[in-house]
User: What shape does this take?
Amino acid sequence: MELNLLLLFMIFSAIVAVQIEDLLSSVIAVGAVGLGLSLAFLVLKAPDLAITQLVVEILCLIILIRATIKKDLPFSTSGRWVFNTMSTVVFVVMFLLFAFFALRELPRFGAPIMRVAQEYIATGLQKTGAANLVSSVILDFRAYDTLGEATVLFTAVIGVLAVIRKVGRINNEKS
Amino acid sequence: MSEYILCFVLFCIGLYCVLRKRNIIKIIIGLGIIEYAVNLFFILLGYRAQGRAPVLAKDQAVTNIVDPLPQALVLTAIVIGLAVTALIVAIAIRIYDKYGTFDITKIRRLKG
Amino acid sequence: MKILPFFVIIPLGSAFLISLLGKKFKKFGDLWANLSTLALFGLSLHSISLVAAHKMLVYKVGGWLPPFGICMVLDGLTSFMLVTVNLVSFLVTVYAVNYMQKFTDKAKFYTLFMLMLAGMHGVIMTGDLFNLFVFLEIASIASYALVAFGTEAEELEASFKYAIMGSVASSFILLAIALVYGYTSTLNLADISLALTQKGGGFLISFASVLFLVGFGLKAALVPFHAWLPDAHPSAPAPISAMLSGVLIKTLGIYAIIRIFFNVFGATTTPVLSIVMFLGVLSMLVGVILALSQWDFKRLLAYHSISQVGYVMLGIGLGTPLGILGGLFHLFNHSVFKSLLFLGSGAVDYSLHTRDLQQMGGLREKMPVTANTNLVASMSIAGIPPFNGFWSKLWIILACVQAYIQSSKMIYIVYALCAIVGSILTLASFMKVQKYAFFGRLNEKWQNIKEVPGLMQLSMVFLALICIVSSLLVMSSFKPFLDSAADALLAGGGYQEAVFANVK
Amino acid sequence: MKNPEPGMTLIVKTITRLTVGLILLYGIYIVLHGHLTPGGGFAGGVIIALSFIHLMLAFGKETALKKLSEARASLIESLGAIMFLSIGVLGIAGGYFLFNFFVDKGRPFHLFSAGTIPFCNIAISLKVGAGLFIIFAALIIFRSLGSEE
Assistant: This one.
């Protein structure tokens, strides 16, 4: 029951984040959604993710606030984009309708068919020696994923440094 | 079932924000909301009623454990979301530096 | 058997090394990148012989059995894609040695290039759904940063648009993976198809396949989602737009669609194939029509990429053996001649500093090598007989006619006609390029331009040779290379038995 | 008017002097106990990066960069990445890529107990921490250049 309340809180603050005019307050509203998500992870018995989500959320907020500090111009939506709004709303409603029919076929909430996870739980401790099953899944059963993961962050760092550098092209004036 | 639907509603709010809004920072915020919704949906799939966190204690036989696999995947997805957001914010700052505005209707030097 | 993980270890290791040592030793980046791409090209040729020897190889990463750990799969289709990717990437690194002198910070360029290569190899090799998503993200993030490498205003805007549409597509793909995991609660591709055969796909699987089609369709720039490609590819530096058009949209888009829909979801029954074919024909026509009105050299080539991707999707969407063979052969050909065209446009940009066709004229005398290699590439993309483009387009059109004869549905004839019309319009568009850029009177502004440096010429000549030589693939001696790739797809559901049989 | 010395007011500085050490210690704890308690390489690495960012926000750019200059941070990051890849390649000696080779040495529930998992955790936290610090330093340095023009 409290999960539904938490989800409603997140949806409400997401709507606030989308509709509000001032940039800084919409960034704060997204922070509220992120922290609500971290609470939801706690309720859903995922402590690992709660810590990671909380900390990543703080970092995301700092980066976003850094981008909007003295740059929030008077925000004006001049022309009403009527066609654009209508097509987006129709697309979203269609998407939700199909999603509703698809979700009915999923196993009931709270009763997952743990075809592969049963093995992780049963033999996780003695095969990998790690008490934290999530760490054993991340770093041993699916270590290849985490190698890819570390590379994603490495790529993002090199990408940011490549984008941020002041002069990109040496335009030596020839002919 | 209601949790899944609410999670999809959150996804649609993020999608609406990305497709509809004209300010770059709002689009980045929409992307963040989409990533939150997808990560939440993954964990909702792995939840077990009256389940226990997947951390084994020293001398307790824990029976009803939650599914650890989606948690491992969502840990990866959270850090991917952070990496993409950081790169897009860097590009947005450079765009603001060059164009002087965050409004995508005014950033139209490319034709077509 | 042991060489499978080295397809990912070599690019990753060299990326980390180049980022570590690239600043101190100026020449280290060039040397190391060329060395590792050459080694990868050799390994991929070796992988063909491995596949010829024992049809499928499964490598258990970390020593765990497939459903519990991640496995790497090497079958006909994988080795075919590896050869295509490594051939183009080796020649592009040779080209980039000279071209990238116009940009600052070459070490970061090579690091991002090797990371994109590692991402593509990860996507091709993996036998696990979520792993495919992670490596897809690596390749995408590296390509976002590479598009914005020459930090000008247009490039930043194009890269921003590309990054936003790319991450929306990735979120759709992740949502589809979550739905499939919820339904089958396993992530290994072979295990999913096993669970689906037992459980039978309901409405959820068709909803997930629509999400996959939207996500991967956006990465492959099929028509309704092609808006980012005409901005992203021209603004990237030339070697990168050659890699993007030649290989990236194929591995992240087309390879992922055909692997998931043929081998995992068993596409032959569901209507997905007809949707794929329809999107293919749509992008074929829209791409070439939009290209006719372009005057920017690289934007014109980018629009042609969309239409040629449409040919490949039409070929593979037919599902018949000849159609798949034609589609895969066209995928290989398109990688070769499209990257040659982009390298040629980069060479023109390197010496003239402009991409506008109207200002060019009569470059043949001043830049003979670039002009001739570009001529060869334009001939093969337009489908002139002796060159490779003709054979693959012929196979696709014949496959359409064959499908019409078997099922006598009028739609296949319409598709065949669209293919022919598209080919004629492509020929017209490239005649325009040749006339304005290379033939005719030399514009007086370009009196003292000189030919591009040696290494750029070498890679362009080598690609042009491949354009001519690869039409030999039609003959029976080289055909098994293509046949093994087509059989991997035609096996469809057989993929799961082969994976479980081969895991030792 | 930019206040004379960089960083925030005195109150923030004194509190930061107290808390930065604790945050760093907590981050290192999360990394080392990654395989026993919740948290791990990623969460710990981000906490370590946050402690440096906290320092940078409170004391301004120069003092933080004295502590960990950008060149040294990118060195640490590449070393962390190579360390993780070499643990994977060492696994090949034990049979398969990323193979957990000495798993049976430690007893469960003890600090050195899960084979290569703690070392992978340390490698990842080095990488994540240094990488995120570089991203933040790059954004800050870019802004200060931007504002002076």
